[in-house]
Every structure is written in C-alpha cells, then in structure tokens.
Design a protein that fits this description.
Elements (H helix, E strand, L loop, with lengths): L4 E7 L7 H12 L4 E5 L19 H12 L2 E5 L2 E2 L2 E2 L1 H10 L12 E7 L6 H13 L3 E3 L5 E2 L14 H25 L1
Parallel strand pairs: 1-2, 1-3, 3-6, 6-7, 6-8
Antiparallel strand pairs: 4-5
Helix pairs in contact: 1-5
Length: about 190
Amino acid sequence: MTSPYRVVAFSGSLRQGSTNTALVRLAQRIAPPELQIEWIDWVDQLPWMNPDLEEDPPAVVQRWWQTLREADGLLVGMPEYNWSPTPLAKNALDWATRPPDDRAIAGTVVAFISSGGRGGGAKAQENLTPILGFMGATMVVEPPVQLALVRDRIDADGNADEEITEAVRAKLDAMLEALRQRDAASA
C-alpha cells in the first residue's frame, strides 16, 4: 500500500478527562506511519438508533455511514458502564451495522482500546466483538487493551506510562497487520 491506511476513531465517553478518550489521543500520537488516525468528535450527534429512520436517514447518519465506508479501520476508546458498552458507543456502533442490505461497518477492521474500573473494559469488548464480527467487520481482539484502574497513569492528552503506551502500540501494530492481511486476501 502506497498511502497510509485511514482509521477513524472515537471515544465512547463524553466525560471530561476520560481515560478512554486519552487512549485514543495516545494512539493518534504513536501510530505507525502506515496508519492515519482521524478523530471523529461528532458521534454524540447521532440520533438514537431507530430502524424507522433508515428509509430517509438524517444527514448525520449518512455522514457516519459515508465516513465508515471511506475508512479502512475503526478504533474505539471503549468505556464500560455496568459491564456493558456506554450508550454513546453502542448507539454509534448500532448505526454502523446499518442499513441491513449494505452495512457501513462491513469490511472494516475494528479495534477496541479500553480503560475502566477493575475490569478494564473487558465486558464491554466481549459484548460487542462477536456482534460486529457477525455484521462483517474484522475484529482485532489480540492483544487486548483492557486497562484497569489507570487514572493516575495517563493524562487527558494521552501522555501515559510505558506499559500503557506499549499496550496501545501493540494493538495498533495488530490493527495494521489485519489491514495488510485483508488487502493480501483481496489481491
């Protein structure tokens, strides 16, 4: 591939100082040159997923679908609330699986990076990975980035200790390898 892979990214958290948002910012900064990570800061504008809106989707839904179709990958800073993905993240991903006859997420390489509580976001990732895989996304599960109790190890700008930085770097490397494998398989 001559130009970098385009990866769109968002955080499933709206909270100021979110460590999940910080993980995405860190990923943007340390991404290998073959990955261009573009921050999407408007997924909170998507309406609640409603199949009734699919026939004449709002402009922001059309924009989301087009953004995903033009991207090679999707990186999500995935918080976990009560062992589940946040409503913001779940809503954006629900819209990504639509419309049923032309799913926007199909063919996209998807990776989650999480920090949250004692479980590090593992349950949120476990909840969504099989669903998105079934809907046609290529899920990058290994190595997992599920960081527990790290608030004092990463700041809002994504400055983190070496362990966190290396975990995110390894995930990005795995994402890049999945993109290369996808391209090789289609050649």
